[in-house]
Design a protein that fits this description.
By secondary structure, the chain is mostly beta strands. Among the domains are: 34 residues, Laminin (Ribbon); 33 residues, no CATH class; 117 residues, Lipocalin (Beta Barrel), CATH 2.40.128. 7% of the residues lie in helices and 41% in strands. The chain has an eight-stranded antiparallel β-barrel with strand order 13-14-15-16-17-18-19-20. Strand 13 and strand 14 form a beta hairpin. About 4% of the residues have low confidence.
């Protein structure tokens, strides 16, 4: 058979084209995972076992088998879905893993600040927190133990610390103990000396953590002089009190702090400003409490 030049060029081009295709085209099933419910793959299509369907043979129609198709459950003949017994999961109720056979992220809206959703949990971008990644507070959703509060250490870190009025390794120690007692008081204001007690603050017969009551606090603006009332103070730590108190109607407002001078808990120095709510007259005072 005679070939002219054009014929030889056509033959050569055909050979090159076939060779190129053989080298570059992958089999359509090479990168396809049809899963355990498949019997094979043809031309990029998974061939599923009887009763299974879907792109990767991940869905199951139990109506073909009835209840026998649901390993640990019963078949809903109307929907074709297995209704699994308690503790069993998956399309055919054969798994004890609650994630198997379900898309736990399907109905979850993680919002624009999420980068992913895994097993029903939103994965937040840096700087965002919370179930839907909508918060910038690192303490969002942080659960602390009894007598603890969540405290943001920086923009991304949260830690649990003892709540006001509690201390100790497990935050189970009331911090009012160092303050409780009888005191003699020397004041820079009138009256210049008196006695006082610091006692537990109670409500309805129950101790209020983080607070103490200072009795016989001087009423500097009382016309009779020397009359007094009790003041409630917040415990900041085992050494320090914070006072923000109003006797009311119109009464007096007292703002100040108190701290022990050392770890013997013998001398408590209370510095405060007392203001007459009616006249707005005020005076700065320092009371030194010495334990008796």
């Amino acid at each position: 058979m005679d070939f002219n030049l054009k014929s030889w060029i056509r033959v050569l081009a055909l050979v090159l084209l076939v060779g190129f295709a053989a080298c570059t085209d992958d089999e359509p099933c090479d990168n396809l995972d049809c899963g355990p419910n498949s019997v094979g793959c043809e031309e990029g299509v998974c061939i599923c076992e009887t009763g299974w369907f879907g792109a990767n043979c991940e869905q199951f129609d139990c109506s073909i088998y009835g209840d026998e198709g649901c390993v640990n459950g019963t078949c809903n003949e109307i929907t074709g879905e297995c209704e699994c017994d308690e503790g069993w999961y998956g399309a055919d109720c054969s798994s004890s893993n609650p994630v198997d056979g379900t898309d736990t992220c399907e109905d979850i809206d993680c919002g624009p600040n999420a980068v992913d959703c895994v097993d029903g949990v939103c994965i937040c971008a840096d700087g965002f927190f919370g179930a839907d990644c909508s918060s910038t507070d690192p303490c969002t959703d942080v659960v602390c133990g009894d007598n603890e509060v969540a405290v943001a250490l920086d923009d991304v870190t949260c830690d649990c610390e003892c709540a006001p009025g509690f201390g100790g390794e497990n935050c189970d120690e009331l911090l009012d103990a160092p303050f409780i007692g009888n005191y003699s008081v020397a004041s820079t204001c009138d009256p210049t000396s008196f006695t006082s007690m610091i006692v537990e603050q109670t409500e309805n017969g129950n101790v209020v953590p983080g607070k103490v009551k200072i009795t016989n606090f001087s009423n500097l603006f009382d016309p009779d002089g020397g009359n007094s009332f009790d003041v409630v103070a917040d415990i900041l730590d085992g050494q320090t009190l914070d006072i923000l108190f109003s006797s009311g109607n119109p009464g007096y407002t007292i703002i100040g702090t108190g701290s022990f001078t050392d770890n013997t808990y013998t001398t408590l120095v209370v510095s405060f400003t007392v203001t007459d709510n009616a006249t707005l007259a005020s005076q700065d005072c320092t009371d030194t409490y010495t334990r008796q």
